[in-house]
């Protein structure tokens, strides 16, 4: 049974617009490969971080709304941890 999720992503501030688009497309590819359906991205832009993450004080915030089976959320997190341009990610179940 698929559920609606929101993924909060903080991407590296070292990325330019092309690099950021490439990373966002990579996230979409991982979600779709695992059987999820992309709904929309909401970009907040570059923001100051509350604390330093991986030596960076700024990050690019983006929110992805998608539909997926709950069983894939853990594998998505593992795939994101391998990407050095994703500083943090948090998935929230919107159905609850």
SSE layout and pairing:
Blueprint lengths: L2 E10 L4 H17 L3 E17 L2 E13 L4 H9 L4 E8 L3
Antiparallel strand pairs: 1-3, 1-4, 2-3
Describe this entry's structure for a reader.
- This protein is α+β, with helices and mostly antiparallel strands and 96 residues long.
- It has one domain (3-93): Ribosomal protein S6/Translation elongation factor EF1B (Alpha-Beta Plaits, 2-Layer Sandwich), CATH 3.30.70.60.
- It has two helices and four strands, in the order βαββαβ.
- It has helices spanning 17-33, 73-81, and strands spanning 3-12, 37-53, 56-68, 86-93.
- The protein has a four-stranded antiparallel beta sheet, with helices on one face.
- β2 and β3 form a beta hairpin.
- It starts with a strand and ends with a strand.
Task: Note the main attributes of this structure.
single chain; 96 residues; alpha+beta; Alpha-Beta Plaits; four-stranded antiparallel beta sheet; globular
The CATH topology annotation reads as: Alpha-Beta Plaits
The whole-angstrom Rg is 13 Å
Distance between the termini: 14 Å
As a percent range, the share of strand residues is: over 45%
Provide the spatial order of strands within the biggest beta sheet.
2-3-1-4
Task: Name the structural class.
Answer: alpha+beta
Poorly predicted runs of 5 or more residues: none
Mean pLDDT equals 93
- At the fourth level of CATH, the homologous superfamily is Ribosomal protein S6/Translation elongation factor EF1B
Q: Identify the overall geometry.
A: globular
- Portion of residues within helices: 25-40%
Number of domains: 1
User: What is the tally of beta strands?
Assistant: 4
């Amino acid at each position: 049974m698929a559920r609606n999720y929101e993924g909060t992503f903080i991407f590296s501030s070292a990325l330019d617009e092309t690099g950021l688009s490439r990373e966002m497309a990579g996230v979409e590819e991982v979600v779709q490969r695992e059987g999820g359906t992309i709904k929309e991205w909401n970009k907040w832009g570059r923001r100051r971080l509350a604390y330093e993450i991986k030596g960076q004080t700024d990050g690019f915030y983006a929110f992805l709304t998608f539909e997926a089976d709950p069983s894939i959320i853990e594998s998505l997190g593992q795939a994101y941890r391998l990407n050095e341009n994703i500083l943090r990610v948090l998935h929230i179940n919107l159905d609850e």
